[in-house]
Amino acid sequence: MNVIENKDNDLVFELIGCDASFANALRRILLSEVPTVAIENVYMWNNTSIIHDEVLSHRLGLIPINVDARLFDPIEDGDDTTDQNTLVFQLQVKCPSRRQAAAKAKKATGDDSALTETEKSVLENTELDHAAFMAAKKEAIQTPGRPYTLHLYSRDLVWVPQGDQERRFPNGIRPVHDDILIAKLRPGQEIELEAHAMYGIGQDHAKYSPVATASYRLYINVEIVEPIYDEDAEELAHLYEPGVFEIIPAGVPGKRITVKVANPYACTMSRNYMRNPKLAKAIKMTRIPNHFIFSVESVGMHKPAVLVAEALKVLQKKCKDLIEVTKQQQEAF
Amino acid sequence: MPAKALGKSKPETVFSGFKGVTKESTNKLFSPVYPPRTKSKFQLGRVRASPYGSCLDSIKGGEGTVAWEEWREENLPPLTVPREGYGHIYGQETIDEVDGTDLGDANPEISATGDASLKNPHDFGSTKTPDDAPVGSLKDKWRLLPHFLKMRSLMRQHIDSFDHFVNVEMKQIVQSPSAREIRSEHDPNFYLRYTDCWLGEPSVEEDSYATSTATPFQCRLRDCTYSAPIYVNVRYTRGRQIVVKRKVKIGQMPIMLRSQKCILYEKSEHELAKLKECPYDPGGYFVVKGVEKAILIQEQLSKNRVILEKDAKGEICASITSSTHERKSKAYISMKHGRVYLKNNTLGEDIPIATVLKAMGVESDVEAVQLVGSEPYIVNALALSLEESSKMGIHTRLQALKFIGSKIRRNANSYRRPMPPEDEAREILDRVVLSHVPVHHFDFRAKAIYVGHITRRVLLVHLGKMSLDDKDYYGNKRLELAGNLLSLLFEDLFKIFSKDLKRQADMVLSKPNRAQAYDVVKSIRPDTITNGMIQAIATGNWVLKRFRMDRAGVTQVLSRLSYMSAMGMMTKIQSQFEKTRKVSGPRSLQASQWGMLCPADTPEGEACGLVKNLALLAHITTDEDTQPIERLCRDLGVEDVLRLSGHEINSQQAYLVLLNGLILGVHTRPISLVKNLRRLRRRGLAGEFVSFYLNKEQRAVHIATDGGRVCRPLIIVDEKNGLPRLKQEHIEGLALGTLNVRDLLERGIVEYVDCNEENNTLIAVTERDLEIARKQGLETRKMRYTHLEVDPFTILGVVGGIIPYPHHNQAPRNTYTVAMSKQAMGTIGVNEYERMDGLIYTLVYPQKPLVKSRTLDLVGFDKIPGGHNTCIAVMSFSGYDIEDAVILSKASIDRGFGRCIILKKHQTSVRRYANGSIDRTCGPPDVSNFADGEDDKRYTKYKAIDDDGICMVGEKMEGGSIMVNKESPANTTGDIGGADLGMNMGMSSAVMQYKPSALSYRGQVPSHVDKVLITSNEHEQFLIKVMLRQIRRPEVGDKFASRHGQKGVCGLIVPQEDLPFNDFGHSPDLIMNPHGFPSRMTVGKLLELLVGKAGLYEGRQGYSSAFGEEHGSADTAEATAEALLRNGLNYTGKDTFYSGASGEPLDAYVFSGPVFYQKLKHMVLDKAHALWSSSVRQLVPVL
Which residue ranges run through the membrane (chain A) (predicted)? Predict the structure, then answer.
């Protein structure tokens, strides 16, 4: 194993010498069996927006929530919701009327004196996320004639700690990304809901999948069988397989430009070089069947490395279970 | 690759076929693992998109021609080629390269941040091309289209014709001599005269007293008719006084949406939004009783024209359908045993033509022969006919008339007092036979000449000197639009209305002693016209007694399944032929339909070829005044036919000039006449839709101003230099708004040409055709190009225009696509959630297609799309994909693929009955009455309703749930004890007996209440509409289709981990079986996939307009392959895939990429019907 790249949410590593079935098991588990927490039940108290209840719930469900699923109990049908298996979020937004918006704008500029009595009372009665409001206002100002619209983002979801959750999650719980657009509201429209997030796996619904994608490809062995010169070399290095080959310049006059394999990792097996019959003969590309370049792209609740570890744990558990079952069977006979 | 390209800082383009590549530098790119996915640092592949396609090869192959490119290099300025690379293909609006000079788009980043004004998609044209350049830069011509369509919007034909009806025809009908006045037989002094007629503002009658202005949306919701009052000014006698009354309402006229009388006329998007109207809605339909009704375009044979054909016996026969406001009649002049006869329904037997001519005052045989033609062969052919009548002893006019009079078919129950046969014959010749030829005071000269002319043509055909007419030729067809049909209906109703009024007046006036002076206006009942109009449009039955017309299915409910289906409906043309007839002629595509009708858009099966659709730029004319044209002709030297002898008319030196089928005169220099007339039209001095057509075979100039002709705009090619008159400056002028299409028409740059005039043109399809012609020299060709096509993709219609690369598909596939796109779910309009239609299907996440066409931009399909860009892999998988089934990814569905909303209307009304009793709605019954309280099974059905008995928004509806808990009185007819009981319902309810008549939900799948509307209209006291909503995710059995006639049901839904994945880890959303390709030959789909894939990596939408490759309106396969190559992908679009189950790489490469897929309305959920419990009846004895 050999880590090639380890960024925030991306992990690329080499897996050499193992079987395709093992790599594939790892991939499949990453996709579908490593648990996460996502919104499962939405209790709609009020929704006067253009977005239908079902669509809104679906959108909420797809918002990744930045929480460690290992701290939660799985929930089965019929189980009661407890603080051990459920996170509660609330969303309570109302798009203010134009007048309310104006009042708020005045307040934002610190010009309280200009507020009328009604505007002041209006202002006190609106609970609006200030940043969202300012953003909406800015947009409204920048595009004259455009009706005022309030954008509702994932950051507007408010976590309501249940039981000892406040102690367990002292830093609070938020969605992974703050700027996922949930809905747009027109003045007077209102969304009021309670969303329950629960433990689940990608097998049940794609929203539980902890990875954007996890996959692998096979390493490609690139060989130059016949020497390649000049134009062909240029064409190969720049057009057909950028990054794979390196030009060896003709140092001495009279000598020809040639090419060498520099980075076979960059090869995409696009096979475009085969369009040039000379190159098609000169190059040999082969996949190495037990050399995997594995890439894991996390959605963001865990580091990809953690996900791989988790996936391996799941795999381990599966194996253990299997051993257990076979043992039992053996004993039974 | 030339070595000199190396090391240069500025890219240089080398044209060496596909492999031509330039490089900026040799600096290496090192990407650690993955190759660059977005943009390579190299300035690679500036390959010509289309260095003049393959058409040229055929010319090159011609005998002895120099390769024409070489020729052009020597003789012409450098060609303006579409900008190299992909920008022009991907719809980049700037023009950076003209005449081979690079104007600086070497670096896309620069142009992206460059002049923003040029980036504006509404900025058509550029300032970089010289002003006087012909629009040779090929790609710019299409920029005309938005302007044409702006001038006439998309569904302009309906609206134009309705406006014409309202502004012109309606007034004419009311003012026509036969209808203008009502007189009474009982009082000679009495009269009522209509002096004017017009429409008021659209309004709705609330009750007998109040009216309010109506908006179309209101009418849809309230089940009202969107109509405006018809007012007349009248002048009549009241006793001895003459009274003038203005603004007397005689009825309500349904108003076509977006017509001049509609309140939506010329409203801005913002104003439309306030009226809850969709800005993309084309209008052109009516709202009658809350239902949107479109009057389909009707196709029929043209009226008042001679058509020569073979009759059932194989004899030559000229048929003329005359149509005037007063009468419609049909006459035949046919050959029988070598003689010519006239045939008409009123005449019991065929009349020899010589007798007819004699009856019309042509007594001398010499004159008769001259009218037909004095050429020896004609005289010979006519001899038999002449002989026949003289044998019968008919020599004088009177004898002829008497003879005809004796043959008149008499109506057995005719009340008319008998006239002498000769008078009757004269009457019939005047009014019935060829009634469109005007006869003043029994001066039959014009008609005799007309009969002579037809006879001549019949004889010529008989002698084989002229050919028969083709009935299917589109120049012989006229299209009847909403305006024409309404005009017929209105005329009929207005006459009935007047007759009723007259009867009433007669009744009153017949009474000898009246105390009060009779005021006729008081007995005007507007209902006749109002109800007649509404009934006709609502049912589609056009019953006109006068013309014995009884047509059903004239109107259809506007299909609002998707935006495309609504658009398709508005361009639909219905043919008058019976569908059962097994003739292929009317059904097959006729060459003259080019550019007028969409070749792809026709249904399959029964109505195939009979129902057609207009092409994108086709225009249907409205009736125009003939007087100015007539004068124009006279001024240009057309000699009046009435002053000429038959010999002169048929002389070899003269051409006949026919105006709308009537002989106007003769002209000796027809070519210059036509040229001059056209010149006048091109200056805007004659109507732009008037057609001038020189028919050499008939030796006639046909001028047509009548309505219903299909025509289309073409760019005029200058005869002197063979260059199109449309120049760069015009395009720019249009873009800047300093010019409009009308200016272009008046400057003779473009013109409208109808089917007949097209016969006098030679139309270049592309610029290239013109180039070749110029190269070959103007003189060498017999016929020069006269016109240039605006853009070849305009031969397709609105719906056909959404197909990507239709010219690469097998033709029937395009037809299937068009039929299927009308069933696709998507956005139906931006007001879709406000509407309360019977059934609305919409997608939750519609996407605009990755590969689009110019038509798509023009109709706004990008703004309200219907479908998803689906990543497909063409491979077989699991065996559940046979027979066109497709496999869907569960993860994609989880994320919203194919999710759709179904909104269904449920409606009930709360009525007041004749005896005064009223329906009522009641809240749920008291819970305490149920044994189990709230959870009681019998109580659950009341859960959704509120105290007012109507369901609450957001509530879940399950089978049996009550939406409106309505109760009706048990006794609705009899006496309910006291007339006032009905008035105070509350008090008497204890006495009243009610029976439940709740509106409940039936359906196996639960729905949610989306919207509730309580309203009223003139018929119902209260109208309660409930919209129920269902959101469905795709399931096995749901139908999906791409835009290439490739439909399939979902065969299996596979979890993502089981699906194959490629090197990048992408797994497909949909797997399609490769067997779908070979037999269907939908190459367009392959191209769409390829272009879509390139578009994905380049971050742009691809273009794929029909025949667009050389116009910069479609991406070429070569350019696309180059783009794929640049992004490190295989240039054929095939990727390596790994099995999701085993993890091993698949043995074959898989063709994969994005394709626009539509979800069709056919879903298993609606198809699955099962009965799981029902009463069981014993039919056979149990043994």
Answer: none
